[in-house]
Design brief:
single chain, about 280 residues
Length: about 280
Amino acid sequence: MKRIKRFVSIIAIFSLCFSIVPTVHASNTHEYHIVNLEDGTSQDIVIPESTDDGASFSPSAISTRSIIGDTDDRIPISGDALNYYPTSAVGVIYAEYTDGTSGRGTGWLFGPNDVATAAHVLYNKDGYITDYVEFSIGGSTYVGTNLAVPGEFMNGRNVNYDYACFELSSNVGNTRGYFGWTQNFSVGDSITVIGRPGDYSLNIFAIAFGTVLSSTTSYLISHNADTLGGMSGSPVFKGNGTGGDAYAIGIHRGGGDSYNTATRITSTIAGLFAYYRAN
């Protein structure tokens, strides 16, 4: 089991470059400032970017918007279907913020005890970070630790950095499975989004299918899979979601009438994910 620190921490990412660039170079590193919210101590960690894919994992015990246009094409998932991979690796996040408010979103396992989501799920619209987070999956609830939220998002809500992650105190991914990640995709590729929308009850998820419409910047992807509030943080992954390997190419963040957007898995995010999975 991975060693889990006993405190909740915030990791602020100080990027080497704040402007949008046409490519993201894997030779860069990013400095992460870790703050212990209980005693105020801190440390700096430098994490390299990565161009490597992260492997997915489907254990043998697991079988393998905003609405675009006028039709809602989401398909409800409930009951035993929630235990089929890769849906089995998606859960509900409940966050309490330091201003006393709370919210929910979607998260997904990218390692045995590692959860990815959108930054705005953990850092609310009024600029308050979560000081308590839960992840509910497979009928169980786990408390999160060691939050990582990009400094670029915290300091100005830069939409290019709408991603975050945290750790759990249990290696639930070894039984539920977890997603891999990749930076390799093309416009027109088939994608799937799985999450828990706010218009469904907590034990009903939604799966939606679509295609990559464009890579709008080096940091964002547009797609046409139907989503709704509560699905922020959902995995946007290659394929049709019916089993086999599941590789995320983005983290759903929002959208509108004609397209939805996801934060693209860049070498910066891949490096962060690889660090969390390894530690």
